[in-house]
Amino acid sequence: MSYSFHSDNRLPQTRLAVVSYIIVGMIGLLLLGFWKLQVIDSDKYGQLAEQNRVRSIPIIAPRGRMLDRDGRVLVDNRPSFSVLLLRDDPKLVQQYLPAISDGLGISVDDLREQLQNTRNLPKFQPIVIKPEASSADLDFIESHRSDIPVLEMLSVSRRRYMPGGFLGHATGYVGEASEQQIEASNGKLRPGDVVGKSGLERQYNDILMGTDGMRRVVVNSVGKEMKDMRLTEQEAIPGKQITLTIDYDLQQVAEQSLGARPGAVVALDPRTGEVLALVSRPTPDPNDFAVRIPKEEWRQLNEDPLHPLFNRAIQAQLAPGSVFKIVTATAMLEDHSIPESFTTFCPGYGTFYGRQFKCWVYSSKKGPTSHGSTDLHDAILKSCDVFFYTIAMKLGIDRLAFYGDKFGIGHKTGIDLPSEETGLMPSEQWVERVFHRKWYAGETISVGIGQGAITTTPLQLARLIGGIASGGDFKQPHMIKDAQNVADEKYPLSEHTVERITEAMYGVVNEPGGTGTQLKLAGIELSGKSGTAQVIGYATRERMGKQKKFEDNAWFVGYAPRRNPEICVAVLVQESGKHGGEESGPVARDIIKAYYDKKNKKINGTVTAGEPVPTPASRAAVVAPVVAIKPPKPAVVAPLPDADKQDPQ
Amino acid sequence: MKDAPGTRDYDWWLIAILAAICALGVVEIYSATHASNLAGMHIKQVKWLLFGFSIMFILSRIDYHLILDQALILYVVCLAALAAVLVLGGSRFGAKRWIHFLGQDFQVSELAKLIIIIALARFFAEVRSDQLDLRDLLKAGMLVGVPLALILKQPDLGTALVLVPMLAVGAFLAGLKWQHAAVFTLAGIMLVGAVFYPPVSKHILKPYQRERITSFLHPEDDAKGSGYQLLQSKIAVGSGGFWGKGFGNGSQNQLGYIPVRYSDFIMSAWAEEQGFKGVLLALGLYMALLLRLVQNAQRAKDRAGMFLVMGVAAALGFHVLVNVAMVIGAMPVTGIPLPLMSYGGSATLFVFMAIGLVMNVRLRRFVN
Q1: For a surface tag, which of A357, A407, A468, B185 has the fewest beta carbons within 10 Å of its beta carbon?
Q2: Which among B255, B313, B320 has the least Cβ separation from residue A220?
Q3: How high is the ipTM of this complex?
Q4: What residues of chain B lie within 8 A of the CB of A52, using their CB?
């Protein structure tokens, strides 16, 4: 063994020194790397770490309540929970889909579809997969917090309306903001925000809607909330409540009295323009929309031939029928071109411009009869068509259109509800503008009795009759109590005209032969005018045969007292085929009677604010004790917007 | 001739540095795990460390020449064990690395690293010329290549890679010619290039390895997917700033955003909570450790001892480099732990046994 490594002591000192330099260089490079991250880019990574650990969960601000004029709650909120799916990690989401489907009873396909629909939203934004969580759902989420880290509960407050669609068309309903609404809101609305979609909910959305707060929670790497680490919280600012002009007691009478018949009721206080009751039938229950309306149900509502989403009180544009005779009569008296004592003989029909126009009595159920010799008073009382055909012919369309226009036909009343319609007052200008032809004189005849092209909404008629009985003072109808700047349109009528017209309308109810004598109320000066408006002409009806949808619309506009009324009620019952006085009159009578009953009780001190209101419906309300919900702050009475600036769409 | 060396001959500075690094490790393991279901892990680590220190002392008492004499047998046993792992080993996370022995799971490749250090030291010590000729270089390559292939097969890329610097440092000190160095450096660069070049890498890397490469290159692309670990580690390090968030206050660490924060990514947790100043301390200690090893090599009694010590230095230095570079996102995830700080039995034992060899060499520097 000449050589043994045991005794070889040649050491490459230079190369060893090189190695130590390499070591120093290596450590130096690593330190440079740390310097870059920890000193130069420290802020950037600090923010990233913060984003990692902090998750913002919205606190939904409750919407403001709606109260009736006596402070009774008509619309409020109930606490509820939504199930959120956290989508930050698509792999995790896919992995847990079957478990979520099982636990929450949503099909995997449905979940996939929801994910697909929201794929363009930022990943950090959770999506609501079940808007209304049952207590079983909440238990499921709570007990699977650690093994299904992609579910979260969101405490929300849901709208609670009166059951059965009570006041439904006035209150409207809420829903998730549409893309257009979000774009139009200048960043105020976010996807998933609940906004008013119709009615007062939409009109006063800015007041009713609060500002959502934000709860910031620390979450660990699997998304579990660290309950012991508290962060600052931005509290939700609840929406403000609004007090309506609606009188719950009258509204209830209106709802019951109209019943299930398609139509509308509007009760106004002509002295102020306050809307005391507003009904439109059919009425969907807005509680059904308070969560999320299934597509199928929504389609049905939209395709329903009865158009339940249509607020007839302000949107139904129909021939006013004989109610319009009040306008014709007022025009005759104000115009002075026809002597007041003017009389016509009604044989049941009249011939104008070579065409025969029937009076309604001629086709009444009792068989062909006639009104005989009638003056203005009798003509209003009995609603004689022939008299008003003649007056219309004598006045001409120009005068009729002038007064109809002055009394608001063809204009929005300006009520603070969205989507009000204007109705139509036909005129020579109108046919020229729309049809590019001359007015046919024969058309004037029908317009004189509220038929033909003329259309009005129930609200317009209530305002019109109330205004004429108030001497030509037309207050802007409105839904908010203590509204400022209520528009007041005046077309002063002579005392004589008002006296004659109101005497006649009083006679309609209170004198023998009136079309509304069955409505007579002891001690109340109930006055009014009935209207039985044809949907199609007599001739067409005979041709088409008897069909429900071509039946007459029954109108009655009643008010009390005779002069300067306190309440004016327009009632429409659609396609009833019955006479306005008998079909619609009782509704107006019931409401006016209820108004006086309540007024008398108040005077006698029996009662101060009507009956207590039952709490709004609690439909499948789930109140889970998992997350405490902050009680809303005492709501502040909403500052009222200028009524004349309201611009109902 | 073989007088028992006295205790004062131990490298007490080295032991102090070791103890300091271990202390940092235990502190950070505690911070990273005390609030989780892994609480108590630091105690286990302390036990491993104590066990490691005893092994180190035992190993330092056996003359390294005796160990080197048995190099061939050790090497054959090592190859057999690596082969056995492939056949019998327990599988975890899709890789066969563990073998059950004496009630513990051992990672055989850790022991293999040690034996290859010994085998290489013996081989290079026997090279007589001052310059390493190509034949000897290729032999050394074979010596490392066979176990490297076996370890790669497990697959354990990290451990396999550690063998490369052992060979490189050994060859360098054995008088590697510059031409050879240039050729092998070029080959190395090409290999690295191939790994990062997808059309080639799909033939030589496993899918999970390729994914690590892509996520290293583009960690922000899919922050919750494969780039997650690197990005979270960088966030942790960066958000620590100069002063750190303080012990137990690192959100990335405490909330579990840092992957295996008590083991491979412990430097990340440390950097978040202790900041750049803490990093300075830790890396300073590692530098001191490595330089101290080189110093021990310089003072070794003979060539064999020098190679032994430098083999250890190469292995530890590579561990530190690759692990820390990974933590700051400068290298892909390879699964190489940080020596003495990362939690782990086998890895800790390897380090102590390796330092035991170093001690062994030092203790005998004056003995002749």
Answers
A1: B185
A2: B255
A3: 0.92
A4: 232, 235, 251-252, 255, 257
